TrEMBL record:
PANTHER family: ESTERASE YQIA, ESTERASE YQIA-RELATED. It comes from the Bacteria. InterPro entries: AB_hydrolase_fold, UPF0227/Esterase_YqiA. It comes from Paraglaciecola polaris LMG 21857. SUPFAM superfamilies: alpha/beta-Hydrolases. This is Esterase yqiA.
């Protein structure tokens, strides 16, 4: 009897002002529960500020040394998924990912309330500088990414992601929105991509 050399770990990363209770996160969890009940799967609640969010993710990955890692990241979660993949290896599926969120967040400075957790927090200019430290201007293995984009994303310009992830598998759908309409259609293929050797 041969032992599976490397355990497989999938981490779903939600976006800014979102949570594990978001629609896509819950669709992903339901899919895993039904089809991959033995998979090590996480949907962490990300801190609203970049440094503690990245620290928590680093610590989560460290719990699974030598594992085969997979990341699913939506919006800001896509940004952090790229950071994790470039640092630790693995594969990632990015859904309407934020490419330069440190530029975008300058329009969001001030007080916020997370609509899912009702947590109040303040976003400062220092946080946008912190966010930039997790950027991945170059991709060591673009073939380990699959990027899902919809052209009518009202929050992010999909063309920025199309340009950044040159060499990756990229799927562009006309229309849609920032939430990526019809995400659940891709779940079977997403997990095949992440779990295949």
């Amino acid at each position: 009897m041969t032992y599976n050399k490397r355990e497989k770990v999938i981490i779903y990363l939600h976006g800014f002002l979102s949570s594990p209770q978001s629609v896509k996160a819950q669709q992903t969890k339901a899919f895993v529960d039904e089809y991959y009940p033995d998979l090590i799967f996480y949907i962490p609640q990300l801190d609203n500020h970049p440094k503690p969010a990245a620290k928590m993710l680093d610590e989560l990955v460290a719990q699974h040394p030598n594992s085969k890692l997979g990341f699913i990241g939506s919006s800001m979660g896509g940004y952090f998924s790229s950071y994790l993949l470039e640092r630790y290896g693995g594969k990632a599926v990015l859904i309407n990912p934020a490419v330069q969120p440190y530029n975008l967040l300058t329009d969001y400075l001030g007080e916020h309330v997370n609509p899912y957790t009702e947590q109040k927090f303040s976003l400062r200019e220092s946080h946008t500088h912190d966010l930039k430290t997790f950027d991945t201007p170059t991709l060591a293995q673009p073939q380990n990414y699959w990027v899902l984009l919809q052209t009518e994303d009202e929050t992010l310009d999909y063309r920025l992601a199309e340009q950044k992830y040159l060499g990756a598998k990229v799927t562009i759908e006309q229309g849609g929105d920032h939430s990526f309409q019809g995400y659940e259609r891709f779940l079977t293929d997403i997990f095949q991509f992440l779990l295949q050797d």
